[in-house]
Structure formats: structure tokens, C-alpha cells
## 1
Amino acid sequence: MGIFKQSVLKEYEIQMPYLMWMSASSCIGIKTYTRLQSFFASPKEFYEGSGAKWEKCKIFTKKQIELLSEAKRTKNPQTEYEAMIKKGINIVSIEEEIYPEKLREIKDAPISLFYKGRLPEKNVPQIAVIGARACTNYGLLVAKRLGESLAFADMGVISGMARGIDAEAQTSAVVAGGYSLAVLGTGPDIIYPRESKRLYEMLERGGGIISEYAPGMAAKPANFALRNRIISGLSDVICVVEAKEKSGTMITIDCALEQGREVYVVPGRITDAVSIGCLEMIKQGAGVVTGISEFVDEIRSNYRVDAFTYLESKSNEAFSDKISSNGKYENAFSTMGENFGKIVLNLPVDSFNVDEIIVKTGLDYGEVLLALLSLEKEKMVNNLGAGRFSINKPCLDLIDEFRKNFLAS
Amino acid sequence: MVYKVFSGTVGGIFGDLITVEVDSSTGLPCLDMIGLLGSEVREAKERVRVSLKNNGINLPPMRITVNLSPADEHKEGAAFDLPIATALLGVFGYIPFFDNLNTLIIGELSLDGEVKGVKGILPIVSMAAKRGFKQVIIPKDNAAEAGLVNGIDILPVNSIGELLGLLSCTQQNGDFLYERVSIEPNSEEESVPDFLDVYGQENAKRAAAIATAGFHHLLMIGPPGTGKSLIAKRIPGIMPKLTYEESLEISTIYSVAGKLGKNLPFVTKRPFWSPHSSSTSQAIIGGGQKAAPGLVSLSHHGILFLDEIPEFKREILDMLRQPLEDGQVTVSRMKKNYTYPAGFMLVGAMNPCPCGYYPDRSRCNCTTPQIMRYTGRLSGPILDRIDICVEVSRISPEELENRSLKSENSKDIREKVVKAVETQRKRYITEAFNYNSQIPAWKIKEYVPLGDKETAFMNSLYDSKKFSLRSFYKAIRVARTIADYDGEDNVTIKHLAEATCFRLPDYFGG
């Protein structure tokens, strides 16, 4: 365990603004970050150190030190951090448990990520669907079908929110009720391109938006190429729908191959310019998508989660959830009466019907419905329609715990 | 010399006036019938001649011409026997005192002179009453049915003998006059099964009650043998009793379809039809050679229950669109083009997947494409018109035994439904519609005003739940009915939240 990790976990609230400042300075990658740990005890100490101290460790070039001093002069970590939280943007550092596992493993992992919405769930296969901005109708159709099918199979769709294939795949995944994550090359609060505004808003609620760049960072061409390594790093499988011979998509593929991710390609017509990249990859031996449902089934069987890791991750998740929600769930339980306890006690793990609970508890229809609706309000159960509900997965452990306490008292 | 008698026939659900003219002249003896007649009408001449002969009246050997006018309208059915016989009696001077211009006559004859019942009496008698006829002579079997129409004297006859007696009366025909029995709708409550018999399906029962109160179309989803049909059969028992107008409307359709008779002279119970999934489109929508009304029309003001709804032919389900939308259906065949009322409440029941147990994945092994294909048999436009969807879940017998569940009986539910219907009737008194389910989208703001909190709640649902605009409005309409059913003036979050529980499940696409 690095020394920064200790300090971050110990004094989370104090250290995070400085960690954020470090990553916002855009001079510190994962290598520098690791090396710094033999000179400084915490991000705060690093910030407080002056130009001379930074020079002493012989890590930075002169230009970088200038930049860092400039950043220290102009940006106050505390106020920047607070402003960010106010905007609804979260930060997760590489030291934290909830930092995406797959991304942590890559060579040049970002030291922190800024995000809105939800991070991808662990142990759920994440598929990157990427492709050309100027795509054909065929490409759009395939992207749409892919997005839908992956959503139906409960897999995440990761992409870059660019127009064309990216946006289409992500939109259809969210519309179909699935999870989708956009990896941006700008700050997480910048919507680029503008026409993806609607998708951006959908992702805020039904998925996530992630970026290694601090809020406010405008679009720079070089950054988009860099973020492609995050797209592939977060994914288990990369599926390319349409790509020109030289394109950002091809950069992502290079990253993916370097990171050891599987690459699949949707074949296109040999007469289309946007097919050349894809066909070239097929020639080189990439996997070929010959049918959407076949592709989805194949991924599903390859990335089946074994029960043990799943349970392990569940307990971690519940733990981190509890920290972040500051006891919100406990409040939900304690504010409601005795019948409520009776109902929660009888909630099955699987989805259930209102009538099942009525029969199990012997309570009135009205009481049961009211309890379920207030649980829904607290986002602990989902209303599936036609009188069916299910427990919101992250709350399973909390409900278990509640049951134990309730039975004990 | 020409003698005229009036009769009637049925076109759609309306009666049409037919004039029967008979002329006798010298010439070679024969009996000719003209006027675009169907073969059953042409055969009337033999029935009339023989039955008159068997009652002691021999037609003189003259050239007799019978014309049924209007001459350009195709005539069908055996109901012209009696008017033709009467006209023949008239032309030969047997009935000099008969007031033929103020009487309408219908009936079929058998060879021995007996008068038999016919179809479609009700619309014809209504037409006669509207046109100002003083009296109708009809078969005795149809007397009670005709009695539903007020403002006209009904003279039922059983045989040619009786007819002669009646027609020879100089003045008063009081002995023959039919005395109407008063209609008592639904006095036979014991025959309708009670909701008390349905155990442990409170959610589904409430959904049924709310659907009935607002005349919302209902879809029940559940594994086999959980009580979907049980619930559907009990819905007529909680609907408000039929009013006279409703009863008349339904009886008219039944009359046209030939469903009325001695045993069922008029309809007093809410119709409940449950066609099998192999039924043809003619049976359900209407049609056939005579463009007859189908079950959608026979279920007018009542329930059309489609059990195993995905098993019905796709084309039939799609044809339900017009009646579901407009409350009427237009049936066209050859030269006929009739519009029948079809304001029914659709109650559908289905399994959620081919094996029946989805979403209980511990039992159901169906693959996602299988389930999609199964639920996909219900097309979007049909699903759009279903406001309330509810799951009827499996409950084990042990669980039922363990609990003494409180349950409402049909009588109590009906009282609440009646109140809710009354509330709606008052609210929509200036409108063309009567129920919450029929509020058009552009009038929702006017009739279901929502407070700030409620609007925010609905908007958040619209954003998060993948609600389409249509399901959004559906939820508001259902919430209005829930509030009416619970006897509350304003729609609050409680009602809206409950309404969202009745939306189509996500595997139907919300």
C-alpha cells in the first residue's frame, strides 16, 4: 500500500481536494504519482511543498514546475473541490475501492476520475461499442441493435458519446433500460459535441459520464486520443462497428490490444470508406460479429461471473454504499412503523408481487402498497409495473442487516 | 284492387319500413311475388297459401301479385309471411274493419297456421313507434322483447286463427293487447359469482374494481391456474346495474343477432362474452353474409373477456383497434355497410411467457427471445389502449390457510363502483364521454388538475421510468379513477403512485 493511499483513506475529506488539484494540473500521470510517494507523505504535503521542494525530487522538468506553480497560484483546491461537488460531479481516486478494477490494471491509468451518474458495476461485462462519427445508416442500425441487445442481456455499453456510432449505441442502450457509460475527452461537465446533450442528460440518470479531466476542461484534439485508452481500459470487449483506415477508433483498438482486451468487428461493405478499418482488422484476425444475439451469447458465456467473486464484490459494494450514503437507508427504516418492519422482513430476494406480500404478512392491501411505494421513493425497491416490485440490488445487504436487527429487537 | 300492409326488416341495428302490396286481378290463376326477394322470402308464398288453406281460407283462382317495396332493397328472412297473409286476407275482403295503415305486422308462419318468433323484433318495433304506428302485430314468442319499446300497442298472436280474430274486431282489441312486465335489471344477483370466492388476490381484485369504475381496459398477466378467469367472470357482478337505455341498446343488438327469444326476451344483465382463441374474425368483429354483429357488439356496455389473448390471431387483435378507439365498429359486406355499437370493456388474460412462470426465474426456463416473441404478439396499438395491467400471482395453499384474509364481497365493491361512476357522470355531464378512461389527452389538464408536488412527481417518473407520453396520460387517467373510487376529490401523489403500479410491466416496454 502506497503512502498516499494510507493518507487518502485516513483523511479522505482533507486529502481529496489536493488529489483533485494534482490530477487537474495535468502534469502528473500514474508514474510520477507513484514516484512522488517516496518524497511526500500525502497529496496535501505535496501541494504545500514549494517549487524548490518539487525540484529536489528531480521528477519534473522546468516547464512542469512552472505549470505547477502557476496552478498553485491560480487554483485553490478547497474551493475548486467544493464547487465541483456542488455541480454534482464526483471524484474517485485510484486509491479507492470503487475505482474501476479493470482500469487500475492498465499501464497508464489515470490517478483519479471525475464522474457523474454511476460507475460501471463490478463483475458485469462491459462492452465498448465504438465507431466512426461519419457512419452509414447500416452502421447506425447495427449500433442500435447492439446497444439494445447488450442492455437486455444486462451488460454495460461504454463509448465516447461522439456523434454517429457512439451516440447511437449509447442512446439505444439507455432507452432499452440498460447501463451505459460515456468516457469524455473533456471535463465531465462539458457536453461535446453539443448535439449529444440529450444523451448526456439521459446518461446522468440512466448511466454514467466519466473523464480523467477536471471539470471545465474544454475540448482539445489530443485529449480525445488519450481518453481512448480509458474506453478500452474499462471494457472487457471492444466491438467496432465502422472505422476508417486512420481514425480515433483505430487508436482505441491499438490501446485495447496493448491492454489485452478482446476485439470484435462488425463486417461492412468493401465499397464503403468506413469499412476499410474494420475489414483490415478482420484480415488481421479480429473476432467477427456475424449475428447480434450470437455475439451477445458468446460474451455472456465467456464472461460469466462466478458466484464467489460476485458475493465478495457485493459485500464491498454495500460497505462503500453505506459510507457514501451517510446512513440514509437506516433513516428510511427507522422513520416507519412496525408494519413496515413486518413487510421488509418478508421481502423475497427475487422480484415479487404485491399479493405475495399481502398473503405473507396478512396486512391490508393499502398498508402494503404504501410501504412499498415509500421504499420505492427511497430507491430501495424498483416498481416494475403490473404490481411487481424488486429489491434494488445494492440494498440487499442493508435489508439483511435490518432484518437481523429487527428480529433481535 | 290493391291492399297495403306495413312490415319491417333490419338493417344494422335499425329497423327499415317495408310495404307489402297485394293486387288481385283477372287472368290466369297464379301467385307472383316481386321486389328483389331472397329465396326464403320467395318461399313465403307456399307457406302462406298452405297455412291459409289449413285454416279454412282458400284463395280464389285469380292472378295475384305481391310486391314488397322499396323494390331496390334486397329482402331476407321469414318475417314477411304474416304481413303477406294479412294483405291477402285484406285484398279478398275478409277483414274490412282492419286499420291497415296504422299497423305494422311481422311474423313467420308454419303450414298448420302457427305463428313463429323471428329475429330483430326490437329495432323494427322501435322504428314503428318512432314512425307513429299505433300498433304492431307480432309473434307471441317475441312479445316480451317488443314490450321493451314504449308508446305503441303490442298485439301478439299465436296462430292464423288468432290473427283472424284480432283483425275482425270492429273497435277495441283489448283482449289481445299485451301487458308489459316491468323490467328489473339484475334482480338475479345470485347467479353472478361473488368476489368473496377469490382468495389472496387483493391487488388483482382492486385493479379489476378500479378498471370497472373508470371503464378502463384491463390486462391480467399470470401463470396458469391462478384465478385470472375467476376474476374476469366476477367483473359483471360489480358493474352498475343497467339503465333502461343501456338495456334497450344491448337488447337491440341481441335482437339483430337473433339471441333473444322466449327465455331471454331482453337483456338485463351486463353482457359477458368469452370467445375461445380459435374464434374467427367474423365471430368477434362481426360480418358473415349478413354483416351480422360480432361479439364486440354483443359485449356493448359489458365485458369482452379474451382469455389467453396472445393465442388469438394477430389480425383479430389488430381489428379490435377501431372498436377500442371509437366504441363502435363498421362492418361492410357486399352491398351492406352497417355500424354497430361496440363500447365494451376489454379484459385480457395471458401467461407472461410460453411456460407461464416468467418473471419467476426459479421456474421459468424460457429464453429472452422466446418471451419477447410471446409478449410481442400483442401489438403496440392494442397495448396502448390497455390502461390497467396487473399480475395475478401464484399463492401456495399453505400460505392461504395460514392467513384469515379480509376480503370485500361484490356487493360492497359495486357500491363503490356505482358511486365512482356517478361522480364521473356528473363531472362529464357536458361532454360526449362518460368515463375517466375516455378523457382525451387535451382535456386531461382541465379535468385532472395536478398540484405542483404532483406534477413534479409525474415529471420525475416520466424522466426516469421510460414512460411514453401515452403511458404518462394513462397513469393520470387511472389515478383519477382511483381517487374517484376511494371517494376523494383531488388526485394526490398517493393515487398517482398507485396508478404507476398498474402500468404495463417493463417487458412490454412500459
## 2
Amino acid sequence: MGNEMDTPQTLDEMAAALRSGQCSAAQLIDQALGRAQEHRHLNAFLSLDPEGAQQAAAKADEELASGHDRGPLHGVPVAIKDNICTQGMPTTCASQFLDNFAPPYDATAVQRLRDAGAVIIGKTNLDEFAMGSSNENSSYGPVLNPLDTSRVPGGSSGGSAAAVAAGIVPLSLGSDTGGSVRQPAALCGVVGVKPTYGRVSRNGLVAFGSSLDQIGPFATTVKGAAGVLQAIAGGDPMDATCPDQPMDNWAAECEKPVGPIRVGLPVEYTADLTDEARAALLGPLEAMDDVELVEVALPHTRFAIAAYYVLASAEASANLARFDGIRYGVRVAEPESDLQDVYVASRTAGFGPEVKRRIMLGTFALSAGYYEAYYGKAQQARAAIGSDFDKAFEQVDVIASLTSPTTAFELDARTQDPLEMYLSDIFTVPSSLAGLPAISVPAGADGKGLPWGIQVIAPHWEEGSMFQFATRIESHVASAGSLP
Amino acid sequence: MTAPDPSAVAHVAGLARLKFSDEELRLFQQEFAAILEMVEVLEELPAVEGVDTDSSAPTPMRPDAVTNANLPDAMLANAPDREGYHFRVPAVLGGED
């Protein structure tokens, strides 16, 4: 392979290089594994699988040589968040509880990536059980932001974001419950997608908040993210919330010439922004051709964080009941322990503080006497938030906001105050509650050179218009030369 | 809504099958109070008649057929304790509860 200048970096470049014979899949995988080693200090990976990856790369090369081309992901290195099941490879959820767990099956999304020819090089770090916004809740230590190692990469999919931002892999998978793909994408300066709820099967994604969880891709480009989503999306009999819905060719949508577009700016998302943050959002949008900016109202936004933490924690408290030390994971037992003792001792030893906090909050919210006041009210808030979006989309094609109210913050800056950490997700949680597709695209840098992300939210199942507008932002920002 | 007192926090911990030291319970109670204060904003939500929980797509159905293979070794590979093709568990009966 040529020198670093010639090394293919994006999905498109890799696909072209593999087919022109400029490089082999085996070389791309070795390069990715080498970079993962070089960037060990980021702590982005919890495990690497050089042997499995090299075998898969050899197979990918043989297939391409024999004319069996599986498409744009064939032979491309990818990384998978460690709460998504990979057969025979560790899947720890960054929890002591699952320190030695290797699932007996692949998640549907992982199986589909393999079928598309992608090569999995390893599993990425995260906040324990995907609960966090900074990747500081991992039992295996925090991930560092590749752009400034004194800062967090965001969370919970911090390892998957950092692996793409550091150039280790061009693509990765994360999971997003309240912003866990979009927020780290913004803080690391890469593209991250939360699809429509139900677009991607949750089969094999370790459950956190089942009515909110979605697997989504990270990539260096919007088109790359569109290509990954295309590969993993679509109905799955193993997930009753994942129906067959029509899909456009999203990578092609990214390249389509587009006409005028009406873009909603929710007043509730811009009211409290600093001048710098406001400029990061409005600068690109106001400078783009054929974009009509329309103020829209999402009046129930102020209930979103509260509703989210009640609902997600309630679901988590039920979902994490399966971790009882019987069938997998940690078991702590004294000789005289009975079954109840084993449950309590194993869970107490296996879970970290934030996971316990959320299980406790969820158990409380679901307990007798409190259910209506917390869970019932939160469900009503969720419905009202969804209805706000429905009304807004009668006026506009897509909605735009910042992805995160701040750029990457310093390590330890918010760990002492769970509430302040929860507010990191203020712009991503409402669209999660509404089940809408949303993407984060890099959009310029702050005074310290740290990236901002712009979030584009589209109506249910309309990922095509989301990708189209995101591509326009991407092109505009690239031509303005304002990226870090 | 008021934050639960230490004994109520201990009760919730029991329901959640978690155990905390007295010191942890005390710290936890403070954090819990702050979180619940944030959540109290929900009281200001105007009453909504009949929450619409319909999703935007129909629930897909599938045939009620056995789809998983018979793989006892794979299923037991992660067992913390096993005996033959069984998960080994502590005594279920005879505990104090």
C-alpha cells in the first residue's frame, strides 16, 4: 500500500481502492488494527479480534477476486459497540457483571453487516449498559476524545465515536436511547445516526430502554452512514417492533440534486444558547441556498428530560432484572447462600453506581403508590412531545438544532452531578421519545477548535430527507473550511 | 411528591435486589431527592385524556414456530455454575423469605 497520503480513509475511498486493486481487505484490516494499537491510550476498544478479522478479510479478498462483490461494505473494517452481541466475541456492556460473557449468537445488525462483507475488528467501550453521556461510567475506564484527550468523547457510544474520529475505522455501530449515538458524534466531530424507532432490529442489542433503544451508525461522511444504515435496516421476525417499511437507496439520496427546503428551528432549542452556540447553528443554515428557516414550537420540550429519565429508568429496571447471576455473568455466592442472597450479592457486586442509580429510580417509579404520578405522567408527556413534532412537521420538511448544548467537556467536569450530566441530552431526548430519525453532522468549531454538531430530525421513516439535508450541511461546512 | 426517607430507599433497594451500606443509602437518598425534584416538573403537565400509545407502524406478526436450534452447550457456555446440561442454582426453598 502507498504512503499515508494515499491510504483510503472514507468508505467510498476504501470501496474504490479494493476494486481497483490499490489495496486488499487484508491490508485495510491490518491498517485498522495497527491504528487501534497506536491509539490504545484513547481506551476506545474493550477487545480486538485480530484473528477473526484477518480470516474474514482473507475471505473478503477471495470473494472479490472471484467476482463475488457484496457491495460497498465488502472488506471494510468496522467496530461494534460492546452492548451489541457478537457470536463468540466478548460482549461486556462495559460492566463487571458481563466481564466474561461471549454471546452464542450475532445481533441481527451484526449478522447483516457480516452478510454485507464488513469485517469486525473489535468491540468498543461505552458507559456501562449504555447509561451515560460522557463514557465515564465504563467499568474499564473512560474513553478519551481523540481531538483533545483531556476531554470526554460523549456517550454512551464514546468508543465507537472515538474509533471513527481517530481514523481507526471508517464506520462503527453504536446504540442510541436518548442521544447515545448523536451526542458523541457531535463531540468527536463525526456523523452519527439514530434511525426511526423500529428501522433497525434490536435483536441482540442488550436491552436498556426497549421503547427507545435503536442501533445506529457512525461514519466519517453522511453517505457512509447512509450505506451502513442501508445494510442493517429492515424488518426482522426476531423483533416485533421492527416492521418491513419501504426504504429508499439512501446513499443515492445523498447525491441527488435537491430543491428548496423548509427547515424548522424550535424556539425551545435556541432560547438558552450562548452566542457562540447560536452562531454555530445559524451560521451554516442561514448561509445555505434554498433553505427557508421557519420558527416552530415544541412546547412540551421542558418535560422531556424528566419523562425520559422516568421511562428509560423504569424500562431499565425491568430489563436488567435478567442479570441475576444464574444463567450468565457474575455469580456471588457463599456456601450458605439461598437464591435471594445470590441475586442480591451478584447484582450488588456486578453493577456500577450509575446503573444502580437508574435501576433504583426505575424501581421506585414503578412501585405501588408512585406509578401513576411518575410513569403514568411521563407516558402522557411522551405523547404530548410526539404530538408537538407532528404539528411542527405540518409546517416544515425537517427540524434542525444543535446536537448538544456544549462542545466536548473536560473529563470529570460533570461526574459529581448526575443531573447536570442528564442535561447533556436535552436536544436529543425529545426526538428519541417521539421515535423520530435524527442525525448529527459536524458543523464548525468553537474557540478551542472543538467541533459542534448540527442535528437534523425528520418525520417517521423519512431518513431519505434527513440524509439529503445532512449532506447539504456537510458540503456547505466543508466548503466553508470551518471544521476542526 | 416528596423524596423517600432512608427506610423507603432501603425498601426500593430490596425490590431491586440490590444492597447498599448505610453510608451508600444516605448518599443515594440525596441524589435520589435531586433527581425526583427534577422529575416533579411532570406535575405541571396538563391532564391528558387517554394517552395515545399507538406506534407509527403496525406490529408485524410471524408464524408461531420453533426457530432456535437445540444448542445446549452454547447456551450453557456462559453459565456461572452448571452440572451436566443444567444450570446449577442454590436452594430455592428454605431461605428466610
